[in-house]
Amino acid sequence: MNDPDILKLVKEQEDYLIKMRRYFHMNPELSNKEFETRKTIISELEKMGVEYRLAAGTGLVAIIKGGKPGKHHLLRCDMDALPVKEDTDNLIQPKACVSQKPGVCHACGHDAHMAMMLTTIKVLSQVREQLKGTVYCCFEEGEEALDGYQHVLELVSEYPIDDCFALHVYNDMPAGKINLVSGPRMAGAVCFGVHVIGKSGHGSRPDLAKNPVIPASHIVCELDSALQNQMNAEETLTFSICVQKAGEIWNAIPDEAFFSGTSRYFSRPAGEKVLALIKKTCTNVADVHGCRVEFEPYTKVLMEPVINAQEVVEETAQKLTQMCGPQVLGEHGLWFASETFCKYLNKYPGALGFLGIANPDLGSGAAHHNSRFDVDESALLLGVCAELSFALR
To answer: Which residue in 141, 152, 212, 304 is a FRET match for 281, CA 20 to 30 A apart?
Structure first.
């Protein structure tokens, strides 16, 4: 099972890889509603003679048991699409395929993730007698809703998993490159929604009311200052107020003002500190103005950062460069989006790689969650090689 032989098997599956990616792209399903998607995956696994188990939701786990003893490796991909109306064109030309469901499309690349995983399984099933150990290939539902991971992790908790790996296609990297780096890679996310509760009144007599608009405005400014002055200056951190609203008419003080937003960070302790500062600042400033605050239930650390383990990165990258050459490794900085794969990394050492899909000549490279998002399908073979490199290293 040498590298040239594995690479040959991968290249033989290119047509299958592209066919499955286009099928998933044309038949997207929203988070936690991936019923037909799961049926398709099951059908493909049964054709390959691969064992699988259904997760509690719409996800599932394929299990490839090797013919030789070895470690237990976990691979993960996600399944869900987004409630986005797809543009038939990418950045410069018509797309190779478009969603057949109005208002729903794979605008983040999960169609490519599933196609790569199925292709990886196909190759692993061909060499299973020579495979050392067991590979658990997880198809995770509801990644965009940030809740499907729970079902998959509950299922695989029955097995002695040693490590884990995932890929995410990335619009900001050229096709033909993959980024595998240890340490922080994707951001953790704190979300907050804050109601400032006051007392309504006539706009001509603010002294007889408790105007929530004033403390809400002060809080927004104070939060920015508090985070800037109390968080470690060496931390990479963003803070955004994305919603702010209050009142209906120019001469009536409202009972309530509301704002919400997010903070992104890259070290696990930073998330809890940001959340504590937000709650403390909101409560104290509101109190000074005779108001109080109520927090939305989603005011919490939604996701931890994705932090790659050095050993998994180095071993996978070494195997990948042996198979495909050192030129496939590309450099890239932090990605400020958040990913449920952090939940796997909280349990097992592992890594998430960025797979480049941008090609100006083909028009791929629009931002994720954008109606013109598209992938250079030629990049997906490299993704399969990366998944195999993790499993076979």
So the answer is: 304
